[in-house]
Predict the structure.
Amino acid sequence: MTNDLMTIPPVILASKSPRRQELLKLMNINFRVVLKDVDESYPEGLTPTEIALHIAEKKCHAFDEMVEDEAVITADTIVSIDGQILGKPKSPEHAIAMLQTLSGRKHQVITGVCILYKHKYNLFHDVSDVLFRTLSDDEIRFYVEKYQPMDKAGSYGIQEWIGLTGIIRIDGSYTNVVGLPTEKLYQALMRLR
């Protein structure tokens, strides 16, 4: 990859997710992490896609006054099954219940992304369908106890044991399920040049 291909503005990643940070590193993007506390509530009646986009944009708004020549990337990932949103689990028992809900069924992983650059907001999203095989209660408990998926929407990480042993099929972007649709992000960053 030539250097001029990556002549994008300096990047701030507003996410503490180690998975998103690793994806940006793998994309060969130089960035720094800056975190701000943002209320992640949303109005009732929004679709899962609208929720992910609403929260991603809300996270970007927190940076609008402090950045000028840097591109801020924010994201929000939601797991949805039958219209029900599975956020981050509140307890190990909650994580077990979520995984029991996902077991043997297809669900959607939706990531909303917002790029703030020069006070302009670029919003986009991606949706991936994920199918789990039927998981035993012992497998679910083992995963929750060993991997502590308390920081993950839907209570699982596709790159971890449960993803490697339990996911039958993905229709859509793998990196979207990890937490950042990298192909769409790359295209959006290239348009900032």
Remarks:
- The mean pLDDT is 94.
- The two ends are 16 Å apart (CA to CA).
- Strands lie at 11-13, 31-33, 71-81, 84-86, 106-117, 120-132, 167-171.
